[in-house]
Amino acid sequence: MTTTENVSIPGAPGVNPNADAIISIRNLRKWYQVGGGFMGFGDKSYLKAVDDVSFDIERNKTFGLVGESGCGKTTTLKLLLGLEKPTGGQIYYEGDDVATMSKAGKTEFRRSVQAVFQDPWSSLNPRMRVRSIVGEPLEIATTMTKGQIATRVSDLLSETGLNPYQANLYPHEFSGGQRQRIGIARALALNPKVIALDEPVSALDVSIRAQIMNLLVDLQEEHGLAYLLVAHNLATVRYMCHDMAVMYLGVVQESGETEAIFNNPMHIYTNALVSAALPSHPDISREEFLLPGEVVSPINPPPGDVFMTRTPLEVDPEHKWAKERPPLVEKEPGHWVVETPWSMAADAGLKVELTGHKGV
Amino acid sequence: MAESTDAAVEEKEVSSAASVDTDGFGGSAASEEVVLDVKDLQTHFTTRWGVVKAVDGVTYHVKRGETLGIVGESGSGKSVTALSLMRLVPSPPGKIVGGEVVLGGRNLLELSESQMTSVRGGEISIILQDPMQALNPVFSIENQVGEAIKIHQKLKGQALWDKVVDSLRKVRIPAPETRAKDYPHQLSGGMRQRVVGAIGISSAPAVIIADEPTTSLDVTIQAAYLRLLRQIQQEEGVGIVFITHDFGIVAKMCDRVAVMYAGRIVEVAEVRTIFNEPLHEYTKALIGSVPKLEEKTGRLPQIEGQPPLLYNLPPGDAFAPRSTLTFTAEDAARRPPLIEVKPEHWVQLSKSSVADYDKFAHMMPAEEAE
């Protein structure tokens, strides 16, 4: 199962061909039918939650997905976890297409890809003791004896910074940070290779966030884990992620190495997001770009560039990219962006100055 | 605190808009007039585990046109302080057991319930965290914004309608005449929070308490809302108490900051002082543990341990168990006093939580004063 040759996986815009990918997502689509189409006649309406998304999650690295609510980042994560069925596209694990895998291959895939969710209050069953919560994956997916499971649970708890004697307690007896540790211990139980993190720290207190982020970073180093991090806090993404993609209305607008994007955000939308992010010091005052209009409905988005309706620049309705979906273009090595006459920040004179100071 | 309230109230100085920077942020419109003065406020809850001192002697003031940030973790008492100001602490089990809340020359804690009703939403109003919970789903926006106006300004009919539309316009809701007829579920999250804001400002309060009003909003919507709050503050000269756990909001919005820990204020200073020269270990650790957007940071320093349980507080310095300084049990056993160690910079002084303790040790009151 550990082939590193990804010869069978097609390349895609926005994907580094030399990446040591453990997960490759290609042209992934999730469309929900929301109306129309009576008995197969008439026009159907689709909510295009995820539309033609491609990226690689590399071994031992973190890939970040950012964007506003409704941009499709959580749906992408659910598609990876198999919680939603894709409408189109492929997910490759270790070079094999998950959809066409053998039963044994699928089982292996499901064990290897685990998740940690946002809300540690609702993601743990309040009626189960910690040892059952953490031990449940072991009971279901392995042939370990009760004694072996108990030992493994103790090890997992100490590894995630909890005390093994707490295994007999219930979730309500823990604080938010500790509960998130329980969630991480459960995700680690089956020795996964990939963990999908859905806003893992946004529900936690500030003083606890650093603890959990550092724990995740340590675990990644120790176990060589790959992470898919879904977050809306850009500072968290810059701290945790090696590579990232910015999504708007189900479509990746800019992707590449995290540092390349933060040092030189090219798309107007990325610049708008960064400019709206809160500063880390009172002397920093970024000029905010408020995009015209509101996020449009993902139901029947424009056939061309989805960002068309939010750009401050003029859109030529006869332009090619107003009629068909523009691709990601590699503008710098490892830095991809959807380039249209109305999408580039440089053309709009809207380059965000990250450390813009007051009184300039 | 430093100012004498009576003298300041007489000045009735209106902040000059000319000194404010046009971009709307950071320019302090604060004047010297204290609009809200909280002295030694104490709110306790009686639970089966014992008495929880949720607010344990909190003192602060807010000036006209100023934003005071109150920062702390969940359970630090920041929200209970806010509810205590409004006298909205559920009783039982909660009880305000001591202190003063002076607003417009009156101690709110001594008012009758009916007097308090006219103050609440009139002179002081609160914007809560979750706009969906703050708005009633079965009443129209017009109804809900109008309710406060009807009670406090006794308006009816056309005058009431005009005022409702005017309030909605003030919070920049597009097409306010149409929106007023809508119900909460027809609006987006950002718009709903603006409606809550419209209710908050409709009676031109002297003080608005904003209890994490943007935590449920998206980054771009949050930025627009914060900008709006700042604009309204400059137009109306209202004092804002901004409760948050996010230092980004503090950096963007606040003129002064009070850091709370375990029901007490551990440090108060001007916002730049808090960021540049924090003295209390907790303040330092909190600021240090936040990842930065502006640069790639190395491993984040983290605060070990958990916030203390409020029904089982250590008798002296509550932060001592998480402090990394070297100190003796005796140092931590004394309740640290809040001392103005530099002009306008107050810190809860103790050997266990302030690294520069020796520099300020001479300011400690004598032991028997306890």
Instruction: Determine the most extensive contact between two protein chains.
Output: A-B, 48 and 45 residues
Gap between N and C termini of chain B: 19 Å
Assembly type: heterodimer
Distance, first to last CA of chain A? 57 Å
Indicate the percent of residues in helices of chain A: 25-40%
Number of strands of chain A: 12
Which strand order spans the largest sheet of chain B, edge to edge or round the barrel?
Answer: 6-7-8-3-9-10-12-11
Shape of chain A: globular
Number of strands of chain B: 12
Range of strand content of chain A:
15-25%
Count of DSSP-assigned helices of chain A: 11
* Helix and strand pattern of chain B: HEEEHEEHEHHHHHEHEHEEHHHEEH
Major pleated sheet of chain A: 8 strands, mixed
What's the pLDDT, averaged over the residues of chain A? 88
Biggest sheet of chain A: strands side by side, in what order?
6-7-8-3-9-10-12-11
Major sheet of chain B: 8 strands, mixed
SSE pattern of chain A: EEEHEEHEHHHEHEHEEHHHEEH
Explain what the structure shows.
The complex is a heterodimer of chains A (360) and B (370). Chain A has 360 residues and is of the alpha/beta class. Chain A has eleven helices and twelve strands. An eight-stranded mixed sheet of chain A has the order 6-7-8-3-9-10-12-11, with helices on both faces. In chain A, helix 6 (206-223) links the parallel strand 7 (194-198) and strand 8 (226-230). In chain A, helix 4 (146-159) packs across helix 5 and helix 5 packs parallel to helix 6. Chain A is globular and about 70 Å long. Chain A starts with 20 loop residues before the first strand and ends in a 12-residue tail after the last helix. The model of chain A is unreliable at 1-6 (pLDDT under 50). With 370 residues, chain B is α/β, with parallel strands linked by helices. In chain B, 32% of the residues lie in helices and 22% in strands. Chain B has 14 helices and twelve strands. Chain B has helices at residues 5-11, 78-85, 113-119, 131-134, 141-153, 157-170, 176-179, 189-201, 219-236, 247-253, 271-276, 281-288, 329-333, 357-360; strands spanning 34-47, 50-63, 67-71, 94-103, 106-107, 124-127, 207-211, 239-244, 256-261, 264-270, 338-342, 345-348. In chain B, the strands form two sheets. An eight-stranded mixed sheet of chain B has the order 6-7-8-3-9-10-12-11, sandwiched between helices. Chain B has a four-stranded antiparallel sheet with strand order 2-1-4-5. In chain B, a hairpin with a 2-residue loop joins strand 4 (94-103) and strand 5. In chain B, helix 5 packs across helix 6 and helix 8 packs parallel to helix 9. Chains A and B meet through helix 5, helix 6, helix 7 and helix 9 of A and helix 9, helix 10 and helix 11 of B.
